[in-house]
Task: structure prediction
Amino acid sequence: MMVNSEFARSPLAGAQHGRRDRVMLKEVPYSHSYDLRVAPGSSGYNEASVALGFVLPTHIGSSATSEQFTALCLGPDWWYVIGSDDLFAALSHALATTHISVVDVIAQRTRLEISGPHAAEVLAHYWEQDLRVSYFPTGACSQGVLAKAPVIVWHSAENCYVVYVRSSFAQHLWTALTDATVEYL
Result:
């Protein structure tokens, strides 16, 4: 699905703040994302796993990645799938023959990336969960509240966190996070 740039507006206009060698914040607007709902163990689950290129993780807070897609497990039968714009094509057979739900939510949230050696410290200013690698390793994800904004946080790589925030909260969260970077820049 293509984003119609005639009316689509990024909440932060692709903003960037910081230094790569310390901490960097940036918005990655229009990241393809989908809510996927399917019962684990069902034929739809099995078909979706084959189409995505990995077995959908069933442990809440875990993720799985292929060349095209990443699935963040947010609930017993709920995944936030990010990646390629052709998820509907990849799941066309499953959608036609099994009980599965896929909703394009690209306009619902924007993607903020916090990276660099001080990324966890900046995030910890507002995140209520323990970010130590032993508790929140690379690949982990969680839903929660960050500076009073509902978010999904994914520890995507070493020293890199991806925050999916609802578009209506994006400017508020951006202001809070840029303020939290001051001592690290």
